[in-house]
Structure to design on (522 residues):
């Protein structure tokens, strides 16, 4: 569904992505892990053409998105929801208006229909009572959840999550994990999750890719990932006290 | 026009190359600002259909216009007072203080009114615009709009542009009036003129052409301020530091452009 073909991205002299190739399949939860600054967010931004590669191409089904523009790009982007690292809510609108924005601007839905849809989506992320608060009045975790509500309010096929659980308390983090899993199982949303929280990666992921030095260092299922002998992976697992022997789901 | 990565230029080895590169950068930026200006004006057609956009425009008028009135009033009154005092001192040597009104009026209408308004708006409104858009850029809010296929130029820049194009002539006219008023106070208290003498002289020399050219100039300044501020905002990089730099650059560029463009407009109309 999303295919990277030898994508290279440079900022100045620094190669952040170095000829990486992988494919994300329809309906799966694809997790990208890696240390800070390894280009996880850059990878996500390539999928919706917020950044364009210096070489190689990014395919969304049969559209080469690094050449798409105008209506074609708009149609591709319509299929995506994007949860940004900080939530990226518009500061001068309350939570309800932020979530309603894509519906108001881009659909012909009536006022009541929009209100119903927004309330429904806010309830999914546990913010049903916070619609009238401003982004500056709510905590970082709530901002992230509101950003998630905005990302999924138009029922996208694919949702890109940029560190959905970082900076959240463990309870909320597990709630977000469950939400991602539920959206995936019930509605069949393809999910790409960037995280450095390996617990959540191992729980919700169908496949895990690890980025290191601009390359995909490892691409495997959670069970294989846990047992991997790749030193980069081991280092990452050990840092979060995850051993190969641990049982599925029990940390 | 919205960029989220540094532009690349080949390395330079000597100062001549460096100068050439700088020129190219400036030409490129001027061109991109021109395109941005054109895009924002073209997007103004959506004002006819979008209620949200009209509401936002009115809100921006309030921000740009009403909120800067206190500062503008003070600056305008004192500009007029200084003008009256300086011309009055010279004129009084020849016992011609009676003409002080015309001096203040013509200077305010032709130059000082639009000029002072432009500088104040660049400093108050332009800088905060650049800072706001820069912050939105850094927080991925602009990217979020793009993902939702909401054009940031139409959504953010056009309301600000239209608001400014409406408010600058109004504020410029207000500045002129306040300046003439301030001049009158000096004329009465320091030059021993009667209010009526001052005003009659001022109105005698008030030319409708001066007014129109001044207002035209202020519209140009308004467009310049918004274009520069939005360009700097939309090209902000590197987090909070970048926001600071964008703000600073927007104020400096707007000041310089107001001076230079002001001169050229004057040259076109007074020859
Ligand atoms: N717009 C940009 N301009 C310049 N450098 C960038 C830009 N975006 C990301 N980078 C650089 O690319 C690298 C990877 O960034 P990022 O993908 O955000 O890391 P992370 O894996 O933590 O999400 C960083 O070193 C960052 O400095
Ligand atoms: Mg990141």
């Amino acid at each position: 569904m999303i295919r990277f073909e030898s994508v290279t991205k440079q900022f100045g002299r620094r190669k952040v992505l170095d000829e990486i190739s992988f494919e994300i399949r329809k309906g799966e939860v694809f997790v990208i892990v890696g240390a800070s600054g390894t280009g996880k967010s850059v990878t996500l931004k390539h999928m919706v053409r917020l950044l364009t590669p210096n070489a190689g191409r990014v395919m969304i089904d049969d559209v080469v998105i690094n050449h798409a523009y105008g209506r074609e790009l708009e149609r591709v982007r319509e299929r995506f929801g994007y949860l940004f690292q900080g939530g990226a809510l518009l500061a001068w609108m309350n939570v309800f208006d932020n979530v309603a924005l894509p519906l108001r601007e881009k659909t012909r839905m009536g006022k009541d229909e929009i209100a119903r849809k927004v309330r429904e989506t806010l309830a999914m992320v546990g913010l049903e009572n916070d619609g009238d608060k401003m982004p500056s009045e709510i905590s970082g975790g709530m901002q992230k959840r509101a950003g998630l509500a905005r990302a999924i309010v138009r029922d996208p096929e694919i949702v890109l999550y940029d560190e959905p659980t970082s900076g959240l308390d463990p309870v909320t983090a597990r709630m977000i994990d469950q939400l991602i899993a539920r959206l995936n199982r019930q509605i069949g949303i393809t999910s790409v999750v960037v995280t450095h929280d390996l617990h959540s990666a191992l729980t919700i992921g169908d496949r895990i890719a690890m980025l290191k030095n601009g390359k995909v260092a490892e691409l495997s299922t959670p069970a294989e990932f846990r047992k991997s002998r790749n030193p980069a992976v081991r280092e990452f697992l050990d840092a979060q006290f995850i051993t190969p022997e641990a049982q599925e789901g029990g940390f | 026009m919205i960029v989220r990565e540094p532009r690349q230029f080949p390395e330079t080895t000597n100062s001549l190359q460096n100068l050439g590169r700088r020129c190219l950068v400036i030409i490129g930026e001027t061109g991109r600002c021109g395109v941005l200006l054109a895009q924002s004006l073209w997007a103004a057609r959506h004002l006819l259909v979008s209620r949200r956009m009209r509401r936002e425009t009115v809100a921006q008028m309030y921000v740009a216009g009403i909120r800067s009135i206190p500062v503008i009033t003070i600056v305008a009154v004192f500009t007029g007072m200084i003008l009256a005092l300086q011309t009055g001192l010279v004129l009084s040597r020849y016992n011609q203080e009676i003409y002080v009104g015309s001096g203040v009026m013509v200077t305010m209408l032709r130059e000082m009114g639009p000029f002072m308004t432009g500088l104040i708006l660049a400093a108050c409104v332009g800088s905060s615009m650049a800072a706001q858009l820069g912050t939105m850029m850094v927080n991925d809010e602009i990217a979020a709009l793009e993902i939702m296929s909401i054009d940031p130029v139409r959504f953010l820049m056009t309301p600000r542009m239209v608001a400014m194009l409406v408010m600058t002539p109004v504020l410029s006219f207000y500045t002129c009036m306040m300046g003439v008023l301030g001049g009158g106070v000096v004329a009465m208290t320091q030059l021993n003129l009667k209010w009526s003498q001052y005003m009659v002289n001022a109105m005698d020399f008030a030319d409708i052409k001066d007014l129109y050219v001044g207002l035209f100039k202020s519209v140009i300044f308004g467009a310049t301020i918004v274009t520069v501020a939005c360009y700097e905002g939309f090209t902000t990089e590197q987090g909070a530091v970048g926001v600071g730099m964008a703000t600073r650059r927007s104020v400096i560029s707007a000041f310089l452009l107001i001076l230079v463009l002001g001169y050229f407009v004057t040259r076109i109309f007074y020859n």
Remarks:
- The mean pLDDT of chain B is 91.
- Chain B touches chain A at residues 4-6, 8, 52, 136, 139-141, 143-144, 146-150, 155 (CB under 8 Å).
- Residues 18-269 of chain B form one domain.
